[in-house]
Amino acid sequence: MGLDSTVNQAVSLGVFIVLGRLLEPRAFGLVASAAVVLWLLRVVVDQGFSSALIQRGQLTSIDIDTAFWTAVVTGTAVAALTVATAPLIADLFSQPRLAAVMRVVSVVFVLAALDGTQSALLTRAMDFRSQAIRRLAATFVSAVAAIVLAATGAGVWALVAQLVTFESVSVVLLWSLADWRPSFRFSRASFRELLTFGASVTGIRFLTNVGGNADNLLIGVVIGPLALGYYVIAFRVMTVINQVLALTLLQVVFSAFSRLRSDPDALNDAFYRSSNLVSAVAFPIYAGLAIVAHPLIVAVFGAKWTPSAPVLEALTLAGLVQCQTIFSSQYAIALGKVHNELRWTTLLVAGQLVGFAIAVSFGIVAVALSLGIVLAVAWPVRLMWLRRFGGLSPREYFRPYPRLVGATVAMAAAVIGAGQLVTDHGSVIQLAVQIPVGVVVYALALLLLARREAMAVLEGARNLRRTLRDD
């Protein structure tokens, strides 16, 4: 998973940079508008059955067949509905070209239906090697398709092709690598059992997607596609960082947490270690990103994306907090507390919607900042919530934080100082000086102030190297 996440995100970011230089902001805004609808409805296709297949202690073949055929029927229906309502969606965003885009990307719902059950079985078996192979291959193929089309003047269709190609190649390889094949069977009893668990998971994912896409929706409708394009670029940088930091562990910890749910002490210890490991890396990255956001955007994407820089600065707060709580949902669901998790997600998303609705009239920077403020306020409440039904100790959770903050402050001071020395030498030179200084100073400060956390990071790197060598 470490190899999958790192290489996948590196390639995706590289392609995103190339496309950012070849395409105009409006193209990104148009596809981002389509993505709002896509990710909201994609949750409905799975109905939480994939998580149910992973979480269940005993799993029968009829459960698997029922989950698969339910997804196929639902995915086909959602795709047909999207095609039929494409003009209405385009009218909502006041973008006539969006209708054609929606009709093409609707095929993703059918592909998602063919993906969910097979992927869940591999995750349940902790066969992350097969998952990594198919995602990496899909990333490379879709990257080539997008760049070729963008270079030949395809515009927004380069981004659409990247999305559809990734999903298509991923599904084809998944079925080539996985052994399971469906039988033409369906059980009403199994459907009801899966739906009891899956309905709450679906609610959680749907609300999470609402919270994650409401900012794009409001910006696209209220301000317009150009502003949305600037916002999407900044948000994409934050998303890539979060995925590199946490996606390596995210799918692994759900399987691990599910296996440890009968041993509360071991489960809580796994949660502390996973969270602390991500925090030790996230603190310096987001502090440094807030400092170098402007030269980074200009150097990587070009001067035409300069309005994205202040948005990225504002988003660093949200990114940092998200990393601190990124495993909490897996923890709650592994314990079977899906109804509690659904209530929490409802409250959190409601707060985000209120924040976005207030902030959107003040511009895209205000929207970005509102997300960070809502998440920061909810963070300690979230921990107390988990303590009620899981027995987590906030004191144990926050134990390494003073040391991590001290090391981060030392790093930030060094980066700011280095930047002052080369402030007149252009964005590329600034980054070339500030980033190495930040890495060296934080590593030294971490060894002095938080040796335990430093050793955990090094041990994770050693384990990854051993795994790659053995494979």
Can you characterise this structure?
- With 471 residues, this protein is mainly α.
- The chain has one domain.
- It is built from 19 helices and no strands.
- Helix 10 (225-259) packs across helix 13.
User: What series of H and E elements makes up the topology?
Assistant: HHHHHHHHHHHHHHHHHHH
Helix content: over 70%
**Overall mean confidence score, pLDDT:** 83
- Structurally, the number of domains stands at 1
Q: Uncertain runs with pLDDT below 50, 5 residues or more?
A: none
N- and C-termini, Cα separation: 13 Å
Largest sheet: none
Shape: globular
Report the β-strand fraction as a percent range. under 5%
Radius of gyration: 22 Å
Number of strands: 0
Q: Please state the structural category.
A: mainly alpha
Write the layout of secondary structure elements.
Elements lengths: L1 H21 L2 H22 L2 H7 L5 H33 L4 H8 L1 H18 L3 H24 L4 H22 L10 H36 L1 H35 L4 H38 L6 H17 L3 H7 L3 H22 L4 H27 L3 H4 L3 H21 L5 H23 L1 H20 L1
Helix pairs in contact: 1-7, 1-10, 2-4, 2-5, 2-6, 2-9, 2-10, 3-6, 3-9, 4-5, 4-6, 4-9, 6-8, 7-8, 9-10, 9-14, 10-11, 10-12, 10-13, 11-12, 11-17, 11-18, 11-19, 12-15, 14-15, 17-18, 18-19
